[in-house]
Amino acid sequence: MKKRRRRPPGAEKRIILFRLAVIVAVPFAVFFLVDSWLRPPIENMAAYEAKVFAMKCINEAMAEEMGRQDVAYGDIVRVTQNNEGLVTSIQSDMQAINRLKVEVTRSILEELADKENQRLLIPLGTLMGNQLTSGRGPIVEIQVLPVGYVQTRIRNKFVSAGINQTLHQIMLETSVHINV
Question: How many Cβ atoms are within 10 Å of 58's Cβ, its own excluded?
Answer without folding.
Answer: 20
